[in-house]
Design brief:
heterodimer, A: about 350 residues, mainly alpha, about 0% strand, B: about 200 residues, 5-stranded antiparallel sheet, 5 helices, 5 strands, about 55% helix, rod-shaped, lipoprotein (chain B), methylation (chain B)
């Protein structure tokens, strides 16, 4: 039975379960001799099962902790004013949350592998497999929701920073030179992080878009480095030192070229990701096409069967009338003989 | 981000004053009565800075609210008055272009000039207007800007491709359900057809 997408609903039947266990235990206590060996086997099985449940429990706990931290981060990001900007805390928290999310990803993948190995080796009942599948899917969806929230918080933070930059421009004309293009000059910090982020999340489609949102967030981080450079340049110009100025000019040209090259690299990465995604989706489209063809063939066959049935029904009346005639003839003979 | 003036001067050796070869300024944002004084100011500061720029060197000086960039190349000097927001690199690449253009159009005739030429050079005025936007002057900046726009567009594309993927997933489920249902339909039809030939 395939597990449906969307929210998995469950009924809480722990009370019934406990009563059944009690009754079974009583029946086991009545005949202890014969049940020793299977009891130890069951113990082993229980251990393996409890290993699975232990892991699942720890993952669930970690997910809830991460979502708590995420709500704290969201509050911080909302709260920032122009002057009292807890950038340091926010960045630390973001890094911590990102690490936790990636750790949770790997743990969840391990859990999946563990579960499939259990399924292969053990003689699991159907209920066990569906239960473990449901648990794993539930954890997956919870993690996906957490990642989505994380992405939303990051977008909100970048928007806030944009608003702050605009406000700062209004108030101080000095700083405006550095802040006019906050998102034009970027360091390619995000490219590698984005690529590695999407790799451990192949199962969650929505979360790989979090990598794309991480890029504009990292741009905010990278503001500081072009800021420093340009203020450096200003100082040197004002001191009218010739040789450093030549150097800074050449250096800035070289740096701009490097930026362009790294941007092109990022673009090639993005294109490669796009190509893989589209090819995967192409395969899905082929499957859809096949399904539709099967459906068409089935429906056509069924239609021909029904048409034949209709024909036989309508043409059968002659046969039926002939049969009835024979029956009536027999009845007549019967009546003749009796009466 | 504004260019207020562009000057081309001949920088004689240190003693004598530089000779202005071409001058283009945009004083439209000053009041009418200030325009001539601003032009004078431009001429004077340009001469001073050019005379203090050693050959084959670039220099940028902060004067009141303008940055004056000067580039001296073998005695031919280009000076630009820009505001603080204009990126330095674009300024110097613009001065480079101006110098190249001047040398192309006037050759070496400027070396003999002894007094300020008052003929306007249309290229310079045109350059002043065109290069108000630093991206025009600096190809690198333009390329960087276009690449960033492309990146944003690509991010949007990836988002829409992900949405398409989700829709395709739902479609594949629905189509598989459809094929199951149609198969059941076919079996039912065959069953009703095959068993009732007697009746």
């Amino acid at each position: 039975m395939s597990v449906r997408h969307g929210q998995s609903s469950y009924r809480d039947r722990t009370g019934e379960f406990f009563s059944i266990v009690e009754s079974l235990r009583r029946s086991i206590a009545i005949s202890p001799a014969t049940n020793n060996v299977p009891y130890s086997e069951r113990r082993e099985d229980l251990n393996k099962r409890s290993e699975f449940t232990k892991r699942a429990r720890s993952i669930g706990l970690a997910i809830s902790q991460t979502s708590q931290k995420l709500s704290k981060l969201a509050k911080l990001a909302k709260r920032t004013s122009v002057f009292d900007d807890p950038t340091q805390e926010i960045q630390e928290l973001t890094v911590v949350i990102k690490q936790e999310i990636s750790a949770l990803n790997t743990a969840l993948l391990d859990l999946q592998v563990f579960r499939s190995s259990q399924n292969d080796e053990g003689n699991n009942s159907r209920d066990k497999t569906t239960h473990s599948a449901t648990v794993v899917d539930d954890l997956k969806y919870r993690l996906m929701d957490t990642t989505k929230e994380f992405k939303d918080v990051l977008t909100m933070r970048t928007e806030n920073m944009k608003v702050h930059e605009n406000r700062r421009q209004l108030f101080s004309s000095n700083a405006s030179k550095e802040s006019t293009n906050p998102f034009v000059r970027q360091r390619p910090l995000a490219a590698k992080a984005a690529a590695s982020e999407s790799a451990p999340l192949p199962w969650a489609n929505a979360s790989s878009s979090s990598s794309s949102q991480l890029v504009p967030w990292k741009q905010g981080e990278a503001e500081s480095s072009p800021l420093l450079q340009q203020s450096q340049q200003q100082q040197q110009q004002q001191q009218q030192q010739m040789v450093p100025l030549q150097d800074t000019y050449m250096q800035s040209r070289a740096e701009a070229l490097h930026n362009v090259e790294s941007t092109i690299h990022e673009l090639s990465n993005i294109f490669a990701q796009l190509a893989t995604m589209v090819s995967q989706q192409g395969e899905i489209a082929i499957r859809i096409d096949q399904n539709m063809e099967d459906t068409l063939a089935n429906v056509e066959g069924a239609q021909s069967q029904l048409a034949r049935y209709l024909n036989s029904i309508s043409s059968n009346r002659w046969l039926m009338m002939k049969i009835f005639f024979v029956l009536i003839a027999f009845l007549m003979i019967f009546l003749f003989f009796v009466a | 981000m504004k260019i207020t003036a562009l000057l081309v001067l001949k920088c004689a050796p240190e003693t004598s004053d530089p000779v202005i070869l071409a001058n283009a300024s945009d004083v439209s944002h000053f009041g009418y009565f200030q325009r001539s004084s601003v032009k004078e100011f431009v001429v004077f500061v340009g001469r001073t800075v050019a005379s203090r720029t050693p050959p084959s060197q670039r220099q940028s000086v902060q004067h009141e609210e303008y940055k004056v960039h000067a580039y001296n190349r073998n005695g031919l000097c280009a000076v630009g008055f820009m505001d603080d927001h204009y990126p330095v690199r674009s300024a110097f690449s613009l001065l480079n272009q101006v110098l190249d253009e001047y040398q192309k159009s006037f050759g070496e005739a400027w070396r003999s000039a002894k007094e300020d030429s008052s003929q306007p050079w249309p290229y310079l005025t045109e350059a002043l207007n065109k290069f108000q936007d630093p991206a025009e002057a600096d190809k690198l900046l333009k390329i960087q800007r276009e690449l960033d726009e492309t990146k944003i567009i690509l991010h949007k594309t990836i988002d829409s491709v992900l949405a398409r993927g989700e829709k395709l997933d739902s479609l594949v489920e629905k189509s598989s359900d459809l094929s199951m249902a149609s198969q059941m339909f076919y079996k039912q039809a065959k069953k009703t057809n095959s068993c009732c030939t007697i009746l």
